[in-house]
Amino acid sequence: MTAAALSLPRPLLWPLMAAALVLSWSSGFIGIRYASESAGVGLVLFWRTLMAGLILLPFALTLGPRMSWRGIVAQCLFGVMSVFLYLGGFALAIGARVPTGTVALISDLLPLAIAALSQPVLGERLSARQWLGTAVAVLGVLIVSGDSLSVGTAPLWAYGLTVASMLVFALASVVLKARPGLRMPLHQSLCLHSLTGAVLFGLCTGWQGSLKPPLTVPFALGIGWLVVFGTFAAYGIYYTMLRLYPVARVSAVIYLSPPVTMLWGWALFGEPLTATMVAGLAVTLAGVMLTVRG
User: Fold this and answer.
1) What's the distance, Cα to Cα, between the start and end of the chain in Å?
2) Average pLDDT over all residues of the chain
3) Which of 68, 174, 251, 267 is the most buried (most CB within 10 A)?
4) Do the domain assignments include residue 241?
5) In what residue span(s) does the EamA domain sit (predicted)?
């Protein structure tokens, strides 16, 4: 994907990739909504990562350089962080009765954590204008998410788990940027990340019950959507952009995920679209523009 991206005219490269990242990252909501009608979140995550890894496996083995054991181990560790701990932590928090709106808000603050880590780990110092844009974008996310927030009755550790899951993915992003020597072709690294997640999700979910998938159309449609858009497109575009641009600039685009998810829900499922949500979208967009231009 990196080579294909670089073949685009340079002025068009950033806006096209940023738009594709927002659309694919936010569209994961659709797959989860369909698949979770027939199965629990753990089973959905297992089949999502297993199918993605198996589809990529023959390409990972036959295309590109031969994978070294050092590279395999490193990518599996990144898979533990960016797939198992990140997605699994949020799933466990929801299972512990943390309100989904609160979980979503914390996960959407990922760019803020990456911005904070990028200076000490990468030496990428954000300007005052970029920090202002970050604050405006966070305000927009709060406006969009305000109606869905609630305290809930979950134990304190479950709320801490959501924060930890977000921080783990942020750390994985900046470490991956800081260690270019550990990179391998995207289809190989994404295959290893997915298969690592599948093994760990399989152990956790299988310990609680069966791994047999429900033979329903919504489940198949949801898993297919999550594999193609939520994994191949979202993770693939994100990792490609990390190789081309500063990590804080790339992650800032994710602030647009909550309002775009809102538009997905309105367009496909008839969910309400209020003036407050539209205002939040406008504020978030303004903040992202300030951040990426700084």
Assistant:
1) 26
2) 83
3) 251
4) yes
5) 13-145, 157-292
Instruction: Domain of residue 97: give its range.
Output: 35-293
The alpha-helical segments, DSSP class H, found in 179-226 are 186-208, 217-225
Tokens 């709060």 belong to residue = 142
Residue-wise pLDDT for 150-176, tens only, equals: 556 677 787 888 888 888 988 888 888
On whether residue 178 sits in a domain, the answer given is: yes
Query: Which residues, in sequence order, are CB contacts of 161 under 8 Å at separation 6+?
Result: 89, 92, 93, 96, 98
Q: How far apart are CA 100 and CA 111, in angstroms?
A: 19
Element (H, E) at 47: helix 41-62
Contact 126, 119 (CB under 8 A): yes
Report residue 265 as tokens: 């829900």
**Given its phi and psi angles, is residue 185 left (phi above 0), alpha (psi -120 to 50 degrees) or beta?**
beta
Look at residue 211 and tell me if it is in a domain: yes
Residue 258 Cα distances to 114, 163, 185, 222, angstroms: 17, 17, 30, 19
Give the type of residue at 95: G
Number of domains the chain is built from: 1
- Please indicate, yes or no, if residue 45 is contained in any of the structural domains: yes
Question: Model's pTM, two decimal places?
Answer: 0.84
248, 124 Cβ separation under 8 angstroms: yes
